[in-house]
Write a structure and sequence with these properties.
Radius of gyration: 25 Å
Protein name: TIRAP protein
GO cellular component, one term: cytoplasm
CATH superfamily of one domain: Toll/interleukin-1 receptor homology (TIR) domain
Strand order of the largest sheet: 2-1-3-4-5
CATH class of one domain: Alpha Beta
Order of helices and strands: HHHHHEHEHHEHHEEH
GO molecular function: Toll-like receptor 2 binding; Toll-like receptor 4 binding
Number of helices: 11
Number of strands: 5
GO biological process, one term: positive regulation of tumor necrosis factor production
Length: 202
């Protein structure tokens, strides 16, 4: 009925409308909920309050432009080919979690025929966080170093979003470029996988 009342209601002046807008903020949560259940004086407020979280579909979330869905991937995995088998286990673990993390694994997700460097740059830009498996092969591989520098160039001050994971690397060999970042030291695979998941969730 608010639309019918709006049609028959005389339009207020500009000063009155700005004054009413300042008064429309509810004083307490209880008063806002009670007014939503009874009669709603503002049409815009009635539209907002009529939305139920249970009615929001996946397509609505995608179209809403929320921060979570603004990126194609949750985690971009940077690694050397020596540890590909372990990385595949990690990706399988993360994607099977209740959160269904969206992981980018280049050998699996890169578009055939596209440039390798372009695919990496696109994945880095379209991921919420980046995981680097720092292993001896990663440090000796020019491609591994390129991945690390690409991540750092994308977000040099991304606190908590760049996640270094050390495997079979001593502290003295930890890359100087990452010295300002805390890391996960992988000893027991199951525990480390769980720690990586918790870190991504935070």
């Amino acid at each position: 009925g608010w639309f019918r009342r709006l049609l028959h209601k005389p339009k207020p002046s500009l000063a009155e409308s700005s004054l009413n807008a300042g008064r429309s903020t509810p004083s307490s949560p209880s008063s806002s909920s009670s007014s939503a259940e009874s009669s709603v004086s503002s049409p815009s407020m009635s539209l907002v309050r009529s939305v139920r979280p249970s009615l929001i579909s996946l397509s609505d979330i995608n179209a809403s432009g929320s921060a979570w869905w603004a990126k194609n991937y949750d985690i971009c995995i940077c690694h050397s080919e020596v540890y590909l088998e372990m990385v595949e286990e990690l990706v399988s673990y993360l994607e099977s979690q209740p959160e269904s993390f969206r992981c980018f694994l280049q050998l699996r997700d890169a578009t055939p025929g596209s440039a390798v460097v372009a695919e990496l740059c696109d994945a880095v830009q379209n991921s919420h966080c980046w995981l680097m498996l720092i292993a001896p092969g990663f440090l000796r591989d020019p491609w591994g170093k390129y991945q690390m520098h690409q991540v750092l160039a994308e977000a040099p001050m991304a606190n908590g979003r760049t996640i270094p994971v050390l495997k079979d690397v001593e502290r003295k060999d930890y890359p100087k470029e990452l010295r300002n970042l805390c890391y996960i030291y992988m000893v027991l695979k199951e525990n480390s996988f769980r720690q990586i998941r918790d870190t991504v969730m935070r």
